[in-house]
Specification:
Layout lengths: L1 H26 L7 E6 L10 E4 L1 H8 L6 E10 L5 E6 L2
Antiparallel strand pairs: 1-2, 1-3, 3-4
């Protein structure tokens, strides 16, 4: 009976550790995914005139910049591999 308790406890600890590690990995950008230091302009629909370190897709959501011809945010590569700079546009 004592061995069964140890086995169950060991399985529970392993499962919780594995779950925590998996959650952390899913929350971290892939090593090759470029991360930029973004600075938004005053026309950004969300978080105007602010900065943040984000991937390009996350920056589009964070600043609300989608399609257009006016500069909405500029990014400078801080990690990963990709273009040295990136721009997001918004508006008509």
């Amino acid at each position: 009976m004592q061995n069964l308790k140890k086995i169950v406890l060991g399985v529970a600890i392993a499962a919780s550790t594995t779950g925590a590690v998996a959650a952390k990995l899913l929350d971290t950008p892939a090593a090759q995914e470029p991360v930029y230091q973004w600075q938004s302009t005053n026309i950004a629909p969300e978080n105007p005139n602010s900065n943040a370190q984000l991937t390009r897709p996350d920056a589009i959501s964070y600043f609300g910049c989608e399609n257009g011809n006016q500069l909405c945010a500029e990014g400078t590569l801080v990690s990963g591999s990709g273009d040295e700079t990136s721009e997001l546009f918004h508006g008509m």
